[in-house]
Amino acid sequence: MFLRAVLFYLLAFFFTFLLGGIQQAAGINSQLTALPQWGPGVAGLLMLLIFRKDGVKLNFKLKQVSPARGFGALLLPMFPAVLIFPVVWLRQESFSLQYNLSTPLLLLLGSLALGAVGEEIGWRGYLHASLNRSLKPLASSAIVGTLWALWHFGFYQNGPVYVLLAVVAFIATSITMFAVLQDIDFNIWSASLFHYGINLSSLFYLSVINQASYMLLYAVAWVAVAAMSMVWTKQARRAGDHPGAGDSDLPGLA
Prior knowledge:
Elements: H1 2-26, H2 39-50, H3 67-75, H4 79-90, H5 105-131, H6 137-151, H7 160-181, H8 188-203, H9 212-239, H10 250-253
C-alpha cells in the first residue's frame, strides 16, 4: 500500500502540473476554473483503473447524503474560520480583510465547487479509502493530511514555518473529515461539500492567507475542531448511536 500511495502522489503532481500548463496555455482565468485541482482526482481515477484488483471503489451514493448531513458537512469546516475571526478583528493592523476578485462571485463559487470534487476524488475517494484498509485512522489521516498539505506547492513560497503549520492544520482537517466520512465509506459528495466549506471560509481571509500568523491561528482552530470530533466519536460510540459504531476502525480514532 505504501508503494501505491507513492505512485498516486507522483501522479497527482504530474497531472497537477500538466493541467496547470494546459490552463496557462489556454489562457483560462484561474478564478473561473482551476484545472490543477483535478490533478489528485485524475491520479485517483488512474490508480483505480490500474489496480482494479485492489477492490477500492469511489462512493458516489447520493442516498447517503441527507440534507442534514450535507449541510453539516458544508458548515462544519467553516467553524475554524469563525473561531479565529475575533483575533483577526482585533489585529486589523496586520490583517487586511479586503480582497478584490476579478471573477463574478457565482462563477467563482462554481469553480470552487468543481475543484473540491476534483481534489476529493483523489484525497478521500482513493487515497484515504485505500490507506484506511491497512492503517489505523489516526495514521491514515496523518499521512493524507501531510501529503495533501505538501501538494499545495504554493505554500512553499511562504517559508518552512508556514508549511509546517499548514501540515498541522491539514492533518487536523483530515482527522475531522475521517470522523465525518468513515461511516459512509468516504462518500465523494459529502467529502466535496466539506472541502467546499473550507474553500468558502477561506475566501474571507484571502488577503492574509499567506501569512504565517494566519496559518498559526488556522492550525490551532483546526486542532481544536479535530479534538472535538474525536471526543464526539468516542462518546457516540460508547452510547451506541454512531452510524458506524460497528466499524473496527473507529476505536483507533477514538
